Inverse folding.
């Protein structure tokens, strides 16, 4: 299936940029971006760069191993598909990314900004800490005051610059009268600065400049980790090139003109070339061909198409050119109706609150109340605003959410890094937590458990002579079944027979003459055979009974392992497909899946998933087609392969970059582990608060104790997070 | 205690040098591909002469 999709000329954005329109200025260098899920070592970098740089038209190619990407500067006529085939020949899987959508500069700016603030906070906190250590070591009187003033001179501008993200977040929350995590953080930082300045002005003993800065540093570190994880996932997952046709060929008075799909109207005549995707719903006016409906319905058998047949947007035209008359465009197409289903289902998922949010909801008001109470208590007890304010600041600093702000991002970064190395992209922030709760796994068949490419299964049943004729006929066509037959026969060492007058009859098959006899390879009815329920191409030699070449959908690599691993882990595995009873049952038997449903409509799939959810199950949905999107969105958590349709990828939380399915079960294990670590970190943080908070409330916390307690807890949770790796 | 008059500016200066160096590395894209750079050093392709 992948082969058909990428071969579709209209689906390639590189072609649109190709010099077909001389009016538009062509950029001197075209940037091509490729996603390379398989690279992992220095040899991979060297091979990929060598192969790409050796390709004519490539000016410069550089691999980024961290993002598993290659950025290529190339001549304008070079197409990404050529480079992909070059890399596939040396054994690397590659997918095209849309370089325009990658917006590397913009996302980098935000990342750099955070990194710069982190560096300033680090620099300032180290210097201030140096001065503070001298104070703790026994500096007194004028020396202590001088150290405090220098600390203030460093801390005030440093915090003014570094803590800006917290200030702006807290402000935007307060403006709509809500509390978020940043409000107590900002309050703690500001209160610490104000009381420290006050203390310094009065030659007091305690100043919390170092605490305010280290706090900023640790929290910024957490923020930066969080940003990195999300930015990497977002940029790659969303920008995997859209496979939907952005352009269509409209026929106006017999002349072809290329227009954007959005400008098509009902009643327009549209030409769809072989390999192209239907841009709109319509009815075939002329032409004969076969349609691949698998992404919409899950059916693997190509459907015969001729004048009068209705087509839906998203179907792929396989063999002959078709002219269709648009009956529904834009939002009325079946593609869009499917997307509406997704929107309805999505709203359910956004209700999930992450562990961190749950903790923050308890935490933010709790801290404020505690700090206010200790201020009030001390004010009533001692009658001194200065002491009371000092203690309130100490309470806020000690309780500040380092564990929340650093521990959760550290765990998710470690876990997503681990999954990324295995070829999975986490798109959604809470996906890992939801994945950890999964107890039921629902698979789609076509394109998910199977690779969507047919595989010849009965090569041995045919005589050598028949195979030679079939091979000769198959080589003349680019139909997926012909391609599969050619590949299988070539691998078996068959040489094609010499045929004359080979012609492809779109929608039916290929025919030719062999030693004066007419030979045909194609559909059952055309070759005079009975239609069976299995995918088959028939070979008829004049005067002989037609013979069937049977095909089955080849299993995706790692599918069997993934299913087995889920069953071993005690999870229920269900197969729901839109394909025929026979095909689904055969696959279910092969993989040992007891629970399967065939001929399911897209709505049925979503309903099944919803029913499971209502029974209290947490469903993981794995699917790739348009018919899966509603189910993907309805599921507790969802995964789709990179070869999936755009809509399906958008609806899913995790994208599988490679072709291998086996990492899915690992992902579940990693998710369980990560969630366990997050909970552990909360427990560590709670224990530390139970010890330190009473000291602070009692007025016993000195800046030294605050610094020690804060750093130890931050370092412990970060180290604990690293255990996920 | 007069020594502090030297030591504090020196420590601030050294810290500042570190900060400036870091800002330079960020500006010149040196953190874009940490994993790749760690592997590239093992590649002997440009050992004899630098990449033109």
């Amino acid at each position: 299936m992948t082969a058909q999709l990428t071969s579709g000329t209209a689906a390639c954005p590189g072609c649109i940029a190709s010099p077909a329109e001389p009016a538009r200025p062509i950029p001197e260098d075209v940037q091509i971006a490729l996603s390379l899920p398989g690279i992992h070592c220095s040899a991979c970098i060297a091979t990929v760069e060598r192969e790409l740089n050796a390709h004519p038209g490539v000016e410069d190619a550089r691999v980024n191993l961290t993002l598993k990407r290659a950025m290529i500067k190339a001549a304008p006529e070079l197409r990404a598909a050529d480079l992909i085939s070059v890399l596939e020949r040396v054994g690397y899987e590659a997918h095209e990314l849309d370089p325009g959508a990658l917006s590397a500069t913009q996302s980098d700016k935000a990342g750099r900004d955070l990194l710069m603030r982190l560096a300033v906070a680090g620099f300032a906190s180290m210097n201030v800490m140096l001065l503070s250590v001298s104070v703790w070591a026994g500096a007194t009187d004028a020396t202590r005051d001088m150290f405090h003033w220098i600390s203030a001179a460093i801390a005030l501008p440093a915090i003014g610059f570094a803590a800006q993200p917290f200030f702006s977040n807290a402000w935007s929350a307060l403006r709509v009268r809500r509390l978020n995590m940043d409000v107590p953080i900002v309050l703690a930082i500001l209160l610490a600065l104000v009381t420290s300045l006050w203390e310094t002005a009065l030659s007091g003993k305690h100043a919390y400049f170092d605490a305010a800065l280290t706090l900023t540093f640790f929290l910024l570190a957490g923020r930066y980790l969080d940003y990195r994880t999300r930015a990497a996932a977002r940029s790659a997952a969303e920008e995997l090139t859209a496979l939907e046709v952005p352009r269509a060929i409209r026929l106006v008075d017999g002349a072809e003109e290329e227009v954007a799909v959005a400008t098509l109207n009902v009643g327009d005549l549209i030409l769809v070339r072989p390999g192209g995707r239907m841009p709109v719903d319509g009815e075939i006016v002329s032409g004969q061909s076969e349609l691949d409906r698998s992404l919409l319905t899950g059916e693997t058998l190509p459907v015969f198409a001729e004048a009068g047949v209705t087509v839906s947007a998203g179907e792929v035209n396989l063999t002959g050119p078709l002219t269709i008359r648009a009956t529904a465009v834009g939002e009325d197409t079946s593609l869009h109706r499917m997307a509406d289903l997704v929107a309805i289902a999505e709203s359910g998922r956004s209700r999930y609150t992450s562990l961190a949010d749950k903790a923050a909801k308890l935490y933010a008001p709790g801290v404020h109340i505690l700090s206010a109470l200790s201020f009030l208590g001390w004010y009533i007890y001692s009658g001194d605003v200065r002491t009371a304010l000092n203690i309130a600041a100490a309470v806020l600093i000690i309780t500040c959410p380092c564990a929340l702000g650093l521990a959760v991002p550290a765990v998710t970064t470690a876990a997503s890094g681990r999954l990324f190395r295995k070829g999975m992209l986490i798109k959604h922030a809470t996906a890992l937590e939801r994945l950890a709760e999964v107890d039921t796994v629902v698979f789609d068949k076509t394109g998910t458990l199977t690779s969507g490419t047919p595989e010849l299964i009965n090569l041995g049943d045919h005589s050598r002579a028949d195979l030679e004729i079939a091979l000769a006929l198959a080589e003349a066509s680019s139909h997926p079944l012909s391609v599969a037959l050619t590949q299988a026969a070539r691998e078996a060492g068959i040489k094609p027979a010499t045929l004359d007058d080979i012609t492809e009859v779109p929608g039916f098959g290929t025919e030719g003459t062999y030693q004066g006899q007419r030979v045909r390879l194609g559909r059952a009815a055309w070759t005079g055979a009975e239609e069976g329920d299995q995918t088959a191409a028939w070979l008829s030699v004049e005067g002989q009974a037609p013979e069937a070449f049977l095909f089955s959908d080849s299993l995706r690599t790692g599918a069997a392992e993934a299913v087995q691993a889920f069953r071993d882990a005690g999870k229920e595995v269900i197969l729901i497909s839109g394909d025929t009873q026979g095909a689904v049952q055969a696959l279910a038997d092969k993989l040992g899946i007891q629970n399967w449903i065939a001929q399911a409509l897209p709505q049925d799939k979503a309903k099944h998933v919803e029913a499971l959810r209502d029974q209290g199950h947490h469903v993981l949905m794995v699917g790739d087609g348009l018919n899966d999107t509603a189910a993907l969105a309805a599921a507790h958590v969802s995964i789709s392969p990179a070869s999936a349709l755009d809509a399906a990828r958008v609806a899913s939380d995790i994208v599988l970059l490679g072709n291998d399915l086996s990492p899915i079960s690992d992902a579940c294990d990693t998710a369980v582990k990560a969630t366990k670590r997050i909970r552990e970190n909360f427990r560590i943080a709670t224990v530390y608060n139970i010890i330190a908070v009473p000291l602070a409330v009692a007025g016993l916390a000195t800046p030294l104790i605050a610094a020690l307690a804060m750093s130890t807890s931050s370092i412990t949770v970060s180290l604990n997070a690293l255990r996920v790796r | 205690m007069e020594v502090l008059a030297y030591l504090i500016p020196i420590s601030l200066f050294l810290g500042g040098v570190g900060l400036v160096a870091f800002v330079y590395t960020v500006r010149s894209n040196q953190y874009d591909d940490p994993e790749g750079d760690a592997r590239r050093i093992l590649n002997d392709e440009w050992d004899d002469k630098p990449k033109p």
